[in-house]
Every structure is written in structure tokens, then in C-alpha cells.
UniProtKB/TrEMBL annotation:
<comment type="similarity">
    <text>Belongs to the ribonucleoside diphosphate reductase class-2 family.</text>
</comment>
<dbReference type="Pfam" id="PF02867">
    <property type="entry name" value="Ribonuc_red_lgC"/>
</dbReference>
<keyword id="KW-0547">Nucleotide-binding</keyword>
<dbReference type="InterPro" id="IPR013344">
    <property type="entry name" value="RNR_NrdJ/NrdZ"/>
</dbReference>
<dbReference type="GO" id="GO:0004748">
    <property type="term" value="F:ribonucleoside-diphosphate reductase activity, thioredoxin disulfide as acceptor"/>
</dbReference>
<dbReference type="InterPro" id="IPR000788">
    <property type="entry name" value="RNR_lg_C"/>
</dbReference>
<feature type="domain" description="TSCPD">
    <location>
        <begin position="738"/>
        <end position="842"/>
    </location>
</feature>
<keyword id="KW-0846">Cobalamin</keyword>
<feature type="region of interest" description="Disordered">
    <location>
        <begin position="1"/>
        <end position="20"/>
    </location>
</feature>
<keyword id="KW-0560">Oxidoreductase</keyword>
<dbReference type="InterPro" id="IPR050862">
    <property type="entry name" value="RdRp_reductase_class-2"/>
</dbReference>
<feature type="domain" description="Ribonucleotide reductase large subunit C-terminal">
    <location>
        <begin position="154"/>
        <end position="689"/>
    </location>
</feature>
<dbReference type="Pfam" id="PF08471">
    <property type="entry name" value="Ribonuc_red_2_N"/>
</dbReference>
<comment type="function">
    <text>Catalyzes the reduction of ribonucleotides to deoxyribonucleotides. May function to provide a pool of deoxyribonucleotide precursors for DNA repair during oxygen limitation and/or for immediate growth after restoration of oxygen.</text>
</comment>
<dbReference type="InterPro" id="IPR013678">
    <property type="entry name" value="RNR_2_N"/>
</dbReference>
<dbReference type="Pfam" id="PF12637">
    <property type="entry name" value="TSCPD"/>
</dbReference>
<feature type="region of interest" description="Disordered">
    <location>
        <begin position="893"/>
        <end position="924"/>
    </location>
</feature>
């Protein structure tokens, strides 16, 4: 898309005739939709606990290039209109048209285009980029634009609160309206006087921490945009506030309370019913630190805490002691993060208007109080050419076009409060960013924590922001600079020169990044020149957001600036369920690095089996770093995350939403070092997460339980105990079956698929072999099942307990699945689920099966009548009468205590037949979180929690995490 500015418009007064646009992405005479193949899909979601259908819309229309995940998320989250009515959107075309038509009309109405033909080009190009997943607007655009709702387009808001009750109560109200619109907000509470200061009446002030309780409760009752995620918010307090220690320790103390309640049997998961009994869980907390404080930490000197009314010194504290308290709290519960005040304001384009005091919930948007920012993110992998080089020229054109659309949105947008609306219209802050950086670097054969990876990321970020400000200066010539530019012109131009100077310091290492850098250098030269002549249309241009939900909408492998989370991922299938596959970026990276097809195949197979590349056949060790991930055997070091952020930060108007992941064994001193080095490297904000530090675990690499608390954090950091352990090696021996052995053959039907299972036992009755017949002789399915049977049989003979196989293979979901002809196992989620439930019933005793939640029909009927599973059969009735009468016994998946949930729930299945749900006995080791539940069901450690809506494993997105199956998030973007 070659775009030129009419020569007559090159004035700073905004009297131009509009943009003249030329097509680059779309084809003249062909609508973007007509270039794609469209298909109809059914989107059905069920609650993983109850099995109830929570969403169903059939016959929705999507391009065949869109994954099932993407279409599910868009249908459930972004389609408007009541489900089941004629007004409900049913096609991606309707959704995109709703957005694009609104943007195009606003562009025409406000003089952005030179001619109607240019407006048509704008409409087609924007449509092409969206439908082909090259970029996405933030969620509020999809929620609101083109509907009867207020046209709220901003995802990020910064509020302000003063030291008065009117202001504090108004803060509660404003946050509520923002959460209702599907967005998040942040603010700085440092203007509120501390609990160590007096009121005018003579009493003692409550302090900001006390008012945080009310705001937290309000946020907990409002779900963003009416969706399933919680409200997202950020609370900031300056490091020199007298209540800083109380603020720092709030969430750490609440985490202790959460552990105590969990151990007492309460459901304290992130989506648990009892989590609302604790406070401060709906906000991210950050301490705003100054250079003065950080230097005092380095020097080991005192630091003054000052009153809010007149700045008098209230007390002096040891800076290192306070810094240690901050790090101990972050070690214990991941809060607070740090925001570096002097660095933030040194890159501020509007200092004459006011300082930057706060950020949005994920810390990427930082600007004036009472302001907002709308976001959009590009899918970097779309710009990787067939020769595995980055198409910088095409990327630059896309940036120009998208930043134009983002600026247009401010012309018609609605805002939750008039002060926010006025500031946003006067300063027009934008937040263009990107996703899929981790996947792009891997595909190019570049390690995330390498000089080459950082150089490529830095040049792309520099080009993106430079091209954005260049287009902003061009728009200023057409429709005028932002209203607050005149008083901030000198400062704004100074920051542009700082960006340009930072770009000059990039040291490229290859032809690929040098080509990108060349375009970035030209862009910044144009920015400085055009800015002097025209001013700028936008006070801010770029941020790096988490891109959680919209990242999945674009089918991105990685979110935001994040590295790949792991080398294998779960892919949702059209017929339901999911399968684990090796990331498709890996084969491309191997081919890029010169590996032959047979080598690629062997390495991919190794990764699929082991989840890492260590000792992969034929893979050279110098290439290991390319496949380093956020979690796993070769996880990135904490400073690897920090160094990548430091490489990109000088080229962003705002900051970066990213969490520095640390292992569970990390010490307080290591967290201190991350915070200190982040300040020295020029980051604007840093957040950390130590694995397993929270009960509601968003990220895990080992499945362990965090047993330390903040009180012994210092001791854990300092004490190192050396133990000498004698290593004993046990070699398994095979217990072969006798030549003649007892066996049984079971015929079964699962979801209409017929099969036969023959099982043989040792003389003592223990299972020793299994053979499955599910396909015709010679078919692929028959061969696979033969191999599977042999593998299981050998494992049994070498001593693998049947209980282990049952815990591994029950609850696996894939087709065929559904009703069976077995009265003891009426429903099966897959063939494997049925087979191992049947084997458990045939060969395991009652106590072993009860630990796994597997019961026969008679045992379940016994529980219905007596409240117990294990009474003698002669004292109970039989389930056959119920079964013959058409009642299906459905075992509940609830994890509640049977003593508390012995009520029988009667429902109807899809055929109208009566069902009765029977509470299953819980495991003796009660699961209090979804991650613990998954570990108990599978018998293995898990690396992420289950989605509380659909049960799919979640993935991290910046400082939040997102469900790939249904798009539910923990609160961001």
C-alpha cells in the first residue's frame, strides 16, 4: 500500500486534502472476501466440570485458513446479538464489516481521504489485513464498534484520585464503568495522605491501603464487558509514601491467608468459589521507584518517606531494607512489580501538561492521568517471506495503514468519563504493537536470548514506531496535530531525537536485520524532519501489550514480546477435544539452519516425545539456544527476558507487558538483581513471577507446591544446605505370563464404533496383557492398536501398576466418544477412556478404584440409596432396574466433598432421556486448584491451570493467561 500525502497538505495547520492511497494487499476489482474459501462450522462449548453446554452456535462462517481455536474464540467473545435470534452475527464477514464500515465512514466524515476512491481502498485494505489475520484491534473494538453500545475503543485507561472522599468515591464509580465496557484501568494512590498523617478534623487518616479494599471488592463483582474474565486493574504507590511498607505487604499477607484456607478445605483456585473471601486479588500492584531511591539502594543509605500534604519528612528508612521487603513480597506472591519513574518521564512527550504517574493494568500504557489508549497488534510471522527473511517494506506499509485506522477511531469513540474523553481527544494516544515475536525469531533460526535475536527484535520495534510517528506527522499536515502539541512541541521533538539516537546505536549482525535497520533509520530521519514542519497527530504511538485473546484470534504461536512457552502445544480439533503437537515453527527453523528432511523428521519426533531438544538426534549443540522456551528443560534465564525487553524499550512510546519468569528455587536476592538490572538497562517497568509462589498458579514448570512464605524468604535465600545422598539404582525385571492363563474377552461400542478387548492375567489375578481389536486387519488403526497393546502389556509385565495406566488414559478426549453399551461405563470420552475404565473395573479392587473415582453401576446405585459406595451388595438394590427404565447414571466430575454434595440432580440428555448425576468420591488428597486437579487426574505434573469455563489448558499472555479453547482470560487485553 503505497500512500502519499497530497502536496497541498504539507502544512502544520491541518488544511490538507486527505490521503491518497494505493493498494498493496488487496486486489483491484476483487473484494478481499472473494479471495478466500469459506466454510460453515459448529461452535459448541461445554463446562468441563458439569458437562453442561455453556455456548452453542451452529453454522458459523469462517475462512478455511482460520483454526478451530480462532473461530471458537471470535464466535463466543466478539459476535454480537442474542444467541438463537435473527440479530445474532453468524459470519466473520459481518463482524469485520461492522468494524471496517464504521472506521471508513468516520475517516470520510473527518477528512482523512482525498477522494471516495481512496476511502474504498482504505476499506478494502483494512478488510484484507483483518480477514487474513495480519493484525487485530484490541478487544473493546470488537465488543463495541458498530453496535448500539457506546463506541468504546480503548482497552487501557489511567485514572486519577485526589486526597478527598469525593475523589475516592468517584474513583470507584469510574472504574466500574471502565470494567463494564471490557477494559482495564490503573491509577496512582500516592496523593492520598498516609495513615501516619492527621485529618483537618484532628483524626488520623485511613491511608490508601484501606481504600484499596473497597475498590477491590467493586472490581470483583464486575466482569469485563459482560465476559468471563475478571476486571483488570493496576494500583501504584510511590516509594516515598509513608504507607509504602503496608502497601508492599498486602498481597503477601493475603497469600498466607489463601494457603491457610486452602489447607482447611476451601476452594481457593483463581476461579474458585471461596477466593472472594480474601482481599486485593483483583489488582496488580506496583511500586513507583525513583532514581534517588535506586541509588540509595546501591549505596546502602537512608531514604526519606514524605507526607502527602506538604512534603515534610515523616520518617527515614534504610533503602536496602525497603528494597528487600519489596523483593520478599514479590518472591512470595509475585507482587509488587516496579515502575521506574525517572526513566518513564524522561521519555514523556507531554511533560508541560503533567507527569506520568501510573499505567494500565499490564504496565504497557503509560501516559497522563485521566487518559486512554486504543491498541492494535500485528502478527509478525505473517511478514516472514518464503526465504525466511523479514519483509520490512511490507511491514512498514501495514504499520502506516493500521496507525491511520487507529487514529480515526478516536474521532468517533465514546469514553466512560468526560475528563478521559477530553484528554484522549486532545492527545490522541495510540498503542500499536505486535505478537508472535518468539515464533518469528525461532523460524529465522535466532535464539531469543542471543545478540542476533535481540538485534532483530530491536530493529523491528524501531521500524514500527518510526513508521508510526512518520504517518502521525503526515496526518498532522492533513487533519492537524493533537491539541496539546503546541505547548509540548519542544519536548515531543526531543523524545523523537532520543528514539533516533537509540536507533543509531543498534548493531546489526546479518543481512536480515540490517535491511530492517536501514528502513528504520530512514523512517526516524523522516520523523524528525516532518515533525518540525507539521507537528504530530498523536502524543504516543506504540506499546507492547500481552495480546492474549487477540493473539489467539490471529492464530499466533506466541503472544506479545514473549518467547515460545513450550515446544509442544495443544491443538483443538473440529470434532471436539484436543491433541498435543510439536509447534510448526520448529521444522521451519530446522530447515532454515540447513538440516535435511530426514534429520528434521527425527528431531521433531524426539521433541514430540520428550518436549525438549537436549540430545535430539543430529541437532548441533550450538543450535540448542534457538529452541529455548519460557518453561521446560531449557528454559530461558531470567536475565534473558530482561535483556530482550531492554533491547526493545528505547523504541516504544509506552512500555512492555511482560513477566520475568523465575524457577521455584529462585531466591530473594535473584529477584533483587532482576529489579536492579532492569533499572540499569533502562526499562520502564518490571514484573516477576516465581514458579508456584501462588496458590492460584498461573504458570508452573514442576507442579510442586510453594511451601515457603514471606517470613522465611530471607532464610531460604541465604541458607544453602549440602547433602550427600547414596544413589541406589533399581533395574526392573519382567514377570512373564504363564503359557496357559485366564483371560476374558469384552465386546464394546463407543459412540457407534465397535471393538473387542482381550485381557490376560497372572495366576494371582493381576493383569498382565491387553489386546485390542478396533479395525479391519491391515488397517492403520488396527496396526496402531496392536502396537499400543504390546507396549501396555510389556509395561504391565515390567511392573507398571495398572492404576498408573488408568490415571493416565482415563478422561482423554477424542473421537469416537459418547454412549457405550456397557452398563457400568455408560459414557466414554474416547476409546482409551472406556478401555481403561473397563480394565479398572475388572482388575482393580474397590479401594484402588475409589481413589480414581471409578465405580460400577451397582456401586453408584448403592451410593444413591445409602450415601455409601461400599455396602455389601445384598443390602442394596441393583442398578439394572433404573437402567432398564431409561435412566442413565452419569458420574459427576465435581471435586466437592460427597458429604456436602449428596444431592442427586436430575436432568435430561439430548434425546430427552432422564439422567441422574451422582457425586463421585474425591481423591484422598483433595484438589484445591484446577492445576492440582489435573495433576491428580493425569498422575503427572502440569505446566498451566485448567480453564474454569471449558477445562482446556491455559497459556500465559504477558502478566496474564488465556484459554486457547474458549478465549477466557484472567483480565488483560
Amino acid at each position: 500500500m503505497t500512500e502519499t500525502v497530497n502536496a497541498a497538505s504539507q502544512t502544520s495547520g491541518g488544511t490538507g486534502k486527505g490521503l491518497t492511497l494505493e493498494r498493496v494487499f488487496s486486489t483491484p476489482g476483487v473484494h478481499p472476501y472473494d479471495e478466500l474459501t469459506w466454510e460453515r462450522r459448529d461452535v459448541v462449548q461445554t463446562n468441563w466440570k458439569t458437562g453442561a453446554t455453556v455456548f452453542e452456535q451452529r453454522g458459523v462462517e469462517y475462512p478455511d485458513t482460520w483454526s478451530v481455536n480462532a473461530s471458537t474464540i471470535v464466535t463466543t467473545k466478539y459476535f454480537r446479538g442474542a444467541v438463537g435470534t435473527d440479530v445474532r452475527e453468524w459470519s466473520l464477514k459481518q463482524l469485520i464489516d461492522r468494524i471496517v464500515v464504521t472506521y471508513t465512514k468516520a475517516g470520510v466524515d473527518h477528512g482523512y481521504f482525498a477522494t471516495p476512491a481512496d476511502a474504498e481502498v482504505f476499506e478494502h485494505e483494512l478488510t484484507w489485513l483483518l480477514v487474513n489475520q495480519y493484525f487485530s484491534f484490541n478487544s473493546p473494538v470488537w465488543f463495541n464498534v458498530g453496535t448500539q453500545s457506546p463506541q468504546q475503543v480503548s482497552a487501557c485507561f489511567i485514572l486519577s484520585v485526589d486526597d478527598s472522599m469525593d475523589s475516592i468515591l468517584n474513583w470507584y464509580k469510574e472504574e466500574g464503568f471502565i470494567f463494564k465496557g471490557g477494559s482495564g484501568a490503573g491509577l496512582n494512590l500516592s496523593r492520598i495522605r498516609s495513615s501516619k498523617e492527621l485529618l483537618s478534623s484532628g483524626g488520623t487518616a485511613s491511608g490508601p491501603v484501606s481504600f484499596m479494599r473497597g475498590a477491590d471488592a467493586s472490581a470483583g463483582t464486575i466482569k469485563s464487558g459482560g465476559a468471563t474474565r475478571r476486571a483488570a486493574k493496576m494500583v501504584v504507590l510511590d516509594v516515598d509514601h509513608p504507607d509504602i511498607v503496608e502497601f508492599v505487604e498486602t498481597k503477601a499477607k493475603e497469600e498466607d491467608k489463601i494457603r491457610a484456607l486452602r489447607d482447611a478445605g476451601f476452594d481457593m483456585d483463581l476461579g474458585g468459589v471461596d477466593i472472594t473471601s480474601v482481599q486485593y486479588q483483583n489488582a496488580n500492584n506496583s511500586v513507583r521507584v525513583s532514581d534517588e531511591f535506586m541509588r540509595a539502594v546501591e549505596d546502602g543509605t537512608d531514604f526519606a518517606l514524605r507526607g502527602r500534604k506538604n512534603g515534610e519528612e515523616i520518617e527515614r528508612v534504610d533503602a536496602r531494607d525497603l528494597f528487600r521487603k519489596i523483593s520478599e513480597a514479590a518472591w512470595a506472591c509475585a507482587d509488587p512489580g516496579l515502575q521506574y519513574d525517572d526513566t518513564i518521564n524522561d521519555w514523556h512527550t507531554n511533560p508541560e501538561t503533567g507527569r506520568i504517574t501510573a499505567s494500565n493494568p499490564c504496565s504497557e500504557y503509560m501516559s497522563l492521568d485521566n487518559s486512554s489508549c486504543n491498541l492494535a497488534s500485528l502478527n509478525l510471522l505473517k511478514f516472514l517471506k518464503d526465504d525466511d527473511t523479514f519483509d520490512a517494506a511490507l511491514f512498514a506499509k501495514a504499520v502506516e495503514f493500521i496507525i491511520t485506522a487507529m487514529d480515526i477511531s478516536i474521532c468517533f469513540a465514546d469514553f466512560p468519563t468526560e475528563p478521559i474523553g477530553k484528554t484522549t481527544r486532545d492527545y490522541r494516544q495510540l498503542g500499536i504493537g505486535y505478537a508472535n515475536l518468539g515464533a518469528l525469531l525461532m523460524a529465522m533460526g535466532l535464539g531469543y536470548d542471543s545478540d542476533g535475536g535481540r538485534a532483530m527484535a530491536a530493529t523491528i520495534t524501531s521500524l514500527m514506531t518510526g513508521q508510526s510517528y512518520k504517518r502521525s506527522a503526515e496526518l498532522a499536515a492533513i487533519v492537524g496535530p493533537y491539541a496539546g502539541y503546541a505547548r509540548n512541541a519542544e519536548a515531543h521533538q526531543r523524545v523523537m531525537r532520543k528514539h533516533q539516537a537509540a536507533n543509531d546505536t543498534i548493531r546489526t549482525l546479518a543481512i536480515a536485520d540490517s535491511g530492517v535497520h536501514k528502513l528504520a533509520t530512514q523512517a526516524w530521519a523522516d520523523v524528525v524532519e516532518l515533525g518540525k514542519a507539521n507537528g504530530f497527530r498523536n502524543a504516543q504511538a506504540s506499546v507492547l501489550a500481552p495480546t492474549g485473546t487477540i493473539g489467539f484470534m490471529m492464530d499466533c504461536d506466541t503472544t506479545g514480546i514473549e518467547p515460545d512457552f513450550s515446544l509442544v502445544k495443544f491443538k483443538k480439533l473440529v470434532g471436539g477435544g484436543s491433541m498435543q503437537i510439536v509447534n510448526q515453527t520448529i521444522p521451519r527453523a530446522l530447515r532454515k539452519m540447513g538440516y535435511q528432511p530426514e534429520q528434521v523428521e527425527a528431531i521433531v519426533a524426539f521433541i514430540g516425545e520428550n518436549g525438549h531438544v537436549i540430545d535430539a538426534p543430529g541437532l548441533r549443540q550450538e543450535h540448542y539456544e534457538v529452541f529455548d522456551t519460557a518453561m521446560g528443560a531449557r528454559s530461558l534465564k531470567p536475565m534473558g527476558h530482561v535483556r530482550m525487553m531492554a533491547a526493545c524499550q528505547p523504541f516504544l512510546s509506552g512500555a512492555i507487558s511482560k513477566t520475568v519468569n523465575l524457577p521455584e528455587s529462585a531466591t530473594v536476592a535473584e529477584i533483587e538483581d532482576v529489579y536492579l538490572q532492569s533499572w540499569k538497562l533502562g526499562l520502564k517497568a518490571t514484573a516477576v513471577y516465581r514458579d508456584n509462589c501462588k496458590v492460584g498458579q498461573p504458570l508452573s514448570d514442576g507442579g510442586g507446591t510453594a511451601k515457603k512464605d514471606a517470613a522465611d524468604a530471607a532464610e531460604a535465600a541465604a541458607a544453602v544446605e549440602t547433602k550427600v545422598i547414596e544413589k541406589v539404582v533399581y533395574a526392573p525385571t519382567r514377570k512373564r505370563l504363564p503359557k496357559s492363563r485366564a483371560s476374558r474377552t469384552t465386546s464394546f461400542t463407543v459412540g457407534g464404533a465397535e471393538g473387542y478387548m482381550t485381557s490376560g492375567a497372572h495366576d494371582d489375578g493381576q493383569l498382565g496383557e491387553v489386546f485390542l481389536k478396533l479395525g479391519k486387519q491391515g488397517s492403520t488403526l488396527a496396526g496402531v492398536m496392536d502396537a499400543f497393546s504390546i507396549a501396555v502389556s510389556i509395561g504391565l509385565q515390567y511392573g507398571v501398576p495398572l492404576e498408573t495406566y488408568v490415571s493416565k488414559f482415563t478422561n482423554l478426549r477424542f473421537e469416537p466418544a459418547g454412549l457405550t453399551d456397557d452398563p457400568d461405563v455408560r459414557m466414554a470420552q474416547s476409546l482409551m477412556d472406556y478401555v481403561f475404565r473397563r480394565l479398572a473395573l475388572d482388575y482393580l479392587d474397590f479401594d484402588a478404584r475409589s481413589m480414581l473415582g471409578i465405580y460400577s453401576a451397582s456401586e453408584r446405585q448403592r451410593h444413591l440409596e445409602t450415601g455409601s459406595y461400599d455396602l455389601p451388595p445384598e443390602e442394596t438394590g441393583n442398578a439394572s432396574e433404573l437402567i432398564e427404565s431409561g435412566v442413565t447414571l452419569v458420574e459427576s466430575t465435581s471435586v466437592a466433598d460427597p458429604a456436602e454434595t449428596d444431592e442427586v440432580v436430575e436432568t435430561k440428555d439430548t434425546h430427552g432421556a432422564e439422567q441422574r448425576e451422582i457425586p463421585a468420591q474425591v481423591h484422598q488428597g483433595k484438589a484445591h486448584t484446577s492445576a492440582e486437579l489435573l495433576e491428580q487426574l493425569t498422575g503427572t505434573a502440569v505446566d498451566s491451570p485448567l480453564c474454569m469455563t471449558c477445562g482446556t489448558k491455559m497459556r500465559p499472555a504477558g502478566s496474564c493467561y488465556v484459554c486457547e479453547g474458549c478465549g477466557s482470560t484472567s483480565g488483560c487485553s
